[in-house]
Amino acid sequence: MNSMLIQLLVLAGVAIFLVLKLRSVLGTRDGFEKPPLPLEDTQAPVKREFEVIEGGPDRDITDHVAEGSDAAKALAGMKKAEPSFALTPFLSGARQAYEMILMAFERGDLDPIRDFLGDEVEASFSEVIQAREARGLTVEANFVGLKEMALQEATFDQVSGFAELTVRFVGELTSVVRDKDGTVIEGDAKAVKRQRDVWVFARKMGSDDPNWQLVATGD
Hints:
By secondary structure, the chain is α+β, with helices and mostly antiparallel strands. It has one domain: Nuclear Transport Factor 2, Chain: A (Roll). 37% of the residues lie in helices and 26% in strands. It contains six helices and five strands, in the order ααααααβββββ. Strands 1, 2, 3, 4 and 5 form a five-stranded antiparallel β-sheet that branches. The radius of gyration is 39 Å and the shape is elongated.
């Protein structure tokens, strides 16, 4: 056996020895393995402490009026007197009430809405309706939709518990006035007109009656 062959056998033996040694230390790997995680990822997660801030602004109020304003203070007083009261649901109900009351007035039939009218408003509406009937006039109206609605003012009397919420409406409707012969004397059934109203709703907070009443109207 020549010297070249002996050197090759020695080198092969050294290579086998090194492979076996590495396998005993590192183990074997089959297929894809994730690389070792960096040190900071292998440590136990750090528990973060968050401070809970209480007594922040009431979004149900500040979404509609300026924080710290007289209206905001009045609304806070209402909520204190009646914790179940919330402004956003009230405004949703006012939106529906606007259409219902307006259309009842235009049709000249107040019976379905009397529970929602204060005495002065009911008397004023009835007077206008009776005057139309005396002249033989009828109104044909169709509510198209509400373009704008916003809370304009809020007041609360802590002594009496009475609250007033003033809401501004901009509605769209078609309206036609006919005389006793059916002739159109005012309006156009195809023309949509805008109507601006400012209504004041009132209620005693904490009362068993949940209904707000319309106590004043304007524009």
